[in-house]
Every structure is written in structure tokens, then in C-alpha cells.
Specification:
Blueprint (H helix, E strand, L loop, with lengths): L1 H67 L2 H18 L10 E7 L7 E7 L8
Antiparallel strand pairs: 1-2
Keywords: Coiled coil
């Protein structure tokens, strides 16, 4: 009976050693994966910080440009340029042939203007 216990004990000890070895191997793999993720995280964090700095710089530049640009002058220039552009595209006298354009402001932003070119609908005359 002592021999059976000794054999069982040795078998149990071998099983424990195999499980321990497998768990240790898995633990090393997980540590390596964690180190890789941590490295990727640090790289991405640096990239995000750089992009945030770039955004702040560009916002500052945009504010400076907004101060330099007179939107009314730009709109006046658009009113002068659009008809000539339409004429260059082979639609000469398009403004007189049923096309019109308008500048519309967005309610969300005064700085955003949309130029709309549309074909005028023919309105039948009553006789």
C-alpha cells in the first residue's frame, strides 16, 4: 500500500509540475503581450499629444486668418466672380438664360456661406 501512495504522490507531483510549467509559460506570454501593448499605448499617447498641439496651433492660425479676412469683401468678390466662371464654362449669359445664384448663410455659423446656383423655373403667364 505504501508503494501505491508513493506512485500516486509521484504522479501528482509530476502533474503539478506540468501545470506549473504551463502556467509559467502562459504568464510569460501574457507579460510580453502586456509590455507590447504598453509600448503601443505610449506611442499612441505621444501621437495624440502631438496632434492636439497641432490642432491648437491650427486653431490659432485660423483665428488670425479670420481677423484678416473681411467676409463682406469676400462675398462681394464671389458675386463678381461667379458670373464670369459660369460664362467660362460654356454657359454664356446663363444668368440671363434661366440660371441664378445666391449666397446663403448657415444659422449655425456666420462664417460659413454657401453659394447656390439654380436653374430658374419658367412661370407661365396668365392671359
Amino acid at each position: 500500500m505504501a508503494r501505491i501512495e508513493l506512485t500516486d504522490q509521484k504522479h501528482l507531483s509530476d502533474s503539478i509540475a506540468k501545470v506549473y510549467s504551463a502556467l509559467s509559460s502562459e504568464n510569460r506570454a501574457l507579460k510580453k503581450q502586456l509590455e507590447d501593448y504598453h509600448s503601443q499605448y505610449n506611442t499612441l499617447e505621444k501621437r495624440v499629444k502631438r496632434l492636439e498641439r497641432n490642432i491648437k496651433f491650427l486653431e490659432s492660425e485660423l483665428e488670425d486668418l479670420d481677423e484678416c479676412v473681411d467676409s463682406e469683401t469676400v462675398i462681394d468678390l464671389i458675386h463678381k466672380i461667379v458670373p464670369s466662371l459660369i460664362g467660362k464654362k460654356g454657359l454664356k449669359s446663363a444668368m440671363h438664360k434661366g440660371f441664378s445664384y445666391s449666397v446663403e448663410s448657415s444659422e449655425e455659423s456666420d462664417s460659413v456661406k454657401t453659394i447656390v446656383i439654380r436653374e430658374n423655373e419658367a412661370i407661365p403667364h396668365k392671359q
